[in-house]
């Protein structure tokens, strides 16, 4: 959790300490998943006061962001009930999964789609063309139900993130087409944004991208990687390549949230 908080500070977010929480506010992107509050490591129920929530709501409102909490239930079992009592609702309960170097299954590193053609996995580089980086981003947006449009600012931000090591990203090609994408955050070893275009699903694409990114991090000396699986199908996929479930990651969001994935909180004048 400490690495997650530290990683947030190095990935375009402003981090503010409020009682037992760290507020991580993304400076340029209002996608709701990119801003959140996290409990500090070891945070205890006794440190909490209702004034903390008042201050967090103020911070997020002034930043034009939706207040959300993300936390690992095994580390903070007291937090879910407290949030539910203070006008927050459960947004997601996702399997929390871990994988170490000895867990990764080498036989899953090279997978082939149903027609027998090999899945070619490539690293995305900051030196790649804008066209290729744009393809990567469009595939990512399509996989997560975002409009498939990439602005020049988004393109520049992605290139900068690759250049400064905020993310290490990879893509899979099938028959010359970018079919799947994914990233890992070296700051906290979280596997994120694994997605496959619909025509290429169930062909080993997501496993190939995930395994490639994990193997690279483990070769660089990382002792552990983690993720929160989006659903049961994703959990089963990650188990195939060596992840094990250790609990749940819970996401709670302000009751006033209207369901949109982009912040609808107006900044104060």
TrEMBL record:
Record GO terms (molecular function): acyltransferase activity, transferring groups other than amino-acyl groups
Entries under InterPro entries matching the protein: Acyl_CoA_acyltransferase, GNAT_dom
One Pfam short name: Acetyltransf_1
The N-acetyltransferase domain, residue ranges: 119-268
Protein name: N-acetyltransferase domain-containing protein
Natural source organism: Humisphaera borealis
